[in-house]
Design brief:
Shape: elongated
Number of helices: 11
Largest sheet: none
Number of domains: 1
Distance between the termini: 29 Å
CATH architecture: Orthogonal Bundle
Helix content: over 70%
CATH superfamily: MetI-like
Length: 251
């Protein structure tokens, strides 16, 4: 409870400042916190909120799972095989700095206006952090341990599956956590441009169609809360014994 209280206090102060500022300025367009709450209740009552949340989460889940299926094996391969790293790493370092938003025109050209475009964008945004972190994790394993195992006749397959992969798990989780955070950002941006469902679309539709800034702010807060929950779920994985064993020490 003591860890939570400071954050709750800061949030309460920010809400109070927000409320006082809106009232003091006499703003007609920008909503008060209570108007945001009532707007969110309106979305809950008519069922549209959960439809948009479900659409966004489904797209993120699809793109993120594809990135995991491609990024993790590729990162392990690049970290384990020197030739693969020297060949593919320059390509990844060229593509990685490109903003996922810059891929939107290409995604629409290739996949049209539909679910395939945001899923592709989520895949692109998620796969690079996973590949980079997984490759770095393999490279940080101390070579003397691997050499000692080889000297004792441990097969490379056994060494890879029982030593390398468990040792890289902390870096894999970090890459997945970064990738999921970026994916949640990207899906909202993609939905603002090319789709008619999801939280990103809800923001644009509330602004353009009805000038409902209470729904705009409510959607933004919901996006932040869901992002917090997703990050918390990934942090739970960091507490697993199979992930922490590399850094464990005897007392």
């Amino acid at each position: 409870m003591q860890k939570v209280l400071p954050s709750v206090a800061v949030i309460a102060v920010l809400i109070a400042v927000w409320w006082v500022t809106v009232i003091a300025t006499g703003s007609v367009i920008f909503p008060t916190p209570w108007q945001v709450v009532t707007g969110a209740e309106e979305l809950i009552e008519d069922g549209t909120l959960f439809q948009h949340i479900g659409a966004s989460l489904a797209r993120v889940g699809s793109g993120f799972c594809l990135a995991v299926l491609v990024g993790l094996p590729l990162g392990l391969w690049m970290g384990w095989v020197r030739g693969a790293y020297s060949t593919l790493n320059p390509i990844f370092q060229i593509l990685r700095p490109i903003s996922p938003i810059a891929w939107i025109p290409i995604a629409i050209l290739w996949f049209g206006v539909g679910n395939a475009s945001p899923i592709f964008l989520i895949f692109i945004s998620s796969v690079f952090p996973m590949v980079v972190q997984t490759t770095a994790g393999v490279h940080t394993i101390e070579q003397r341990y691997l050499q000692a195992a080889e000297n004792f006749g441990v097969a490379r397959y056994t060494l890879f599956t029982q030593v390398v992969i468990p040792a890289v798990l902390p870096q894999i989780i970090v890459g997945m956590r970064i990738g999921l955070g970026v994916a949640w950002l990207v899906v909202v941006a993609a939905e603002m441009i090319a789709l008619r469902s999801g939280l990103g679309y809800l923001i644009i539709d509330s602004r353009n169609a009805r000038n409902r800034y209470d729904l705009v702010i409510a959607s933004m807060i919901i996006i932040g809360l869901i992002g917090l929950l997703l990050d918390g779920a990934m942090r739970l994985l960091e507490g697993l014994k199979s992930v922490k064993w590399r850094y464990a020490h005897q007392d």
